[in-house]
């Protein structure tokens, strides 16, 4: 149920945006500074990889649980709990002097991955129905903006201060956010009483952890190794058991029956494919930092490399809140096609991006598409599923996108490393770009299968979702239902 909270609703939305920004910046600032961190804690290359792997695994495991808690408990309390755990993890990482303690801190921070679906649930409760779509867009846009700012400021910070300030700055921001959340976020009680399916949570957590470890270790083990295939097989078995359990449980962790709705299923599929296809933009720092002798690079520094991704976050922050407005004008399907189509164009531009101006154009176009596409996926969930399932289904979409992104990143890395050259070749980049473009085309095709319009009641519960083409709309104009 949507509850209008004059003034308070806007303050709550501002806190949610601040939390999303702080967490997004925290996680992305580490990437450019990884060599400095590795040297400071004396970690090997495989060990330092767990700085990211631990966050991804913790997030994939905890997000469905957090999302379910948001559907069955007071969302305000869940938000305060998540922010507390993230602050604790950030503090542990800031004080860490070994890779083991740093990994523990990162693992605790991974709980913050649930902030976006949790925010979607709180937004539906605190915002007027006409403002829900733009609020979802603001959350998605701020998340994209925070990633770019994190990549941009990491270089200057580690150049002038100890790397621990990469944790101290976000810790201060998140601690302030926690205080403001306690002060201004209103009580958001669930519409009914429920319980968390802990058996399902264990199966899902173990299944996701197995596949994510397999993905992150694929470069070291090899895609056809016994360890790799064994972990994938274990993951498949665990996920199969999870699906069977959820279909037989009265109060499942994830209501898989909601996936029978075409719009919800396609929103999940598009999110996975977009997450996978977006891996190519994480290769841009490698592309621009390679030595000039490679024949394709701009030979820029670590600090400047982050600037090439700045248009992605800036444009995404601008386009994401516009998804609802575009939807009212051109329909659900057209917005999703526009978003995924922009991502395809961005990939194609990178194929000829031998000049910095074209890289900026590509990342800007990608930001436009990603901002629209991810926001529209969340808007589809918000409009289609019952209010008491909004957070849990949104969490599924977010986890699916994260798994797709992890898989895409490892595939892209494997492609670049396949030539066994010290510096990736342009041929490797071209193969990665072509693959990303083809996968983007798949996302466009999936988007085209989404219903044109999803008609909802004022409370947000779906009434009908139907296919509409020009002929049908012409007929309906002459014969009102």
Question: What is this structure, in a nutshell?
Answer:
With 481 residues, the chain is mainly alpha-helical. It contains 22 helices and two strands.
Our count of domains comes out at 3
The SSE string, one letter per element, is: HHHHHHHHHHHHHHHHHHHHHEEH
Based on the structure given, which CATH architecture of the largest domain is correct?
Answer: Up-down Bundle
Averaged pLDDT: 78
| Number of strand segments | 2
CATH class designation of the largest domain: Mainly Alpha
Query: What's the CATH H-level superfamily name of the largest domain?
Result: MFS general substrate transporter like domains
Would you tell me the structural class of the helices and strands? mainly alpha
Q: Give the percentage of residues in beta strands.
A: under 5%
User: So what's the oligomer here?
Assistant: single chain
Provide a count of the helices.
22
Largest sheet, if any?
2 strands, antiparallel
Can you tell me the CATH topology of the largest domain? Growth Hormone, Chain: A
Strand order of the biggest β-sheet: 1-2
**Poorly predicted regions:** 1-7, 456-481
Q: What's the alpha carbon Rg, rounded to whole Å?
A: 22 Å
First-residue to last-residue Cα separation: 27 Å
Shape: globular
């Amino acid at each position: 149920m949507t509850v209008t909270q004059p003034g308070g609703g806007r303050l709550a939305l501002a806190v949610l945006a601040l939390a999303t920004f702080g967490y997004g910046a925290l996680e992305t600032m580490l990437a450019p500074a990884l060599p400095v961190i590795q040297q400071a804690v004396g970690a090997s290359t495989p060990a330092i990889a767990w700085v990211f792997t631990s966050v991804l695994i913790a997030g994939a495991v905890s997000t469905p649980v957090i999302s379910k808690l948001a559907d069955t408990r007071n969302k305000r309390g869940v938000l305060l709990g998540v922010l507390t755990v993230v602050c604790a993890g950030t503090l542990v990482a800031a004080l860490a002097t070994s890779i083991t303690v740093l990994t523990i801190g990162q693992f605790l921070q991974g709980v913050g991955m649930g902030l976006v679906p949790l925010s979607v649930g709180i937004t539906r409760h605190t915002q007027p129905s006409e403002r829900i779509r733009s609020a979802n867009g603001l959350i998605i846009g701020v998340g994209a903006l925070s990633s770019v700012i994190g990549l941009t400021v990491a270089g200057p910070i580690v150049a002038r201060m100890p790397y621990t300030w990469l944790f101290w700055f976000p810790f201060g921001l998140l601690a302030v956010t926690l205080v403001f959340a306690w002060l201004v976020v209103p009580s958001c009680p669930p519409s009914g009483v429920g319980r968390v399916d802990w058996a399902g949570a264990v199966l899902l957590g173990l299944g996701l952890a197995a596949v994510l470890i397999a993905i992150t270790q694929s470069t070291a083990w090899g895609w056809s190794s016994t360890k790799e295939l064994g972990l994938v097989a274990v993951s498949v078995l665990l996920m199969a058991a999870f699906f069977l359990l959820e279909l037989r449980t009265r109060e499942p962790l994830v209501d898989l029956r909601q996936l029978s709705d075409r719009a919800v299923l396609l929103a999940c599929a598009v999110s996975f494919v977009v997450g996978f296809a977006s891996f190519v933009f994480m290769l841009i720092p490698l592309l621009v930092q390679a030595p000039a002798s490679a024949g394709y690079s701009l030979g820029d520094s670590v600090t400047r490399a982050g600037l090439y991704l700045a248009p992605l976050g800036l444009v995404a922050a601008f386009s994401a809140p516009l998804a609802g407005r575009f939807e009212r004008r051109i329909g659900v399907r057209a917005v999703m096609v526009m978003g995924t189509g922009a991502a395809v164009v961005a990939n194609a531009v990178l194929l000829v991006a031998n000049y910095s101006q074209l890289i900026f154009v590509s990342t800007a176009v990608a930001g436009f598409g990603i901002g629209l596409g991810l926001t529209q996926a969340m808007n589809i969930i918000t409009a289609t599923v019952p209010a008491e399932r909004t957070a849990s289904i949104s969490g599924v979409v977010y986890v699916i996108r994260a798994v797709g992104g992890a898989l895409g990143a490892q595939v892209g890395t494997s492609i670049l490393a396949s030539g066994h050259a010290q510096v990736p070749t342009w041929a490797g980049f071209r193969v990665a770009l072509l693959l990303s473009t083809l996968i983007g085309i798949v996302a466009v095709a999936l988007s085209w299968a989404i219903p044109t319009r999803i008609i909802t009641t004022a409370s947000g519960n779906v009434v009908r979702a139907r296919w509409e083409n020009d002929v049908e709309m012409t007929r309906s104009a002459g014969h009102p239902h």
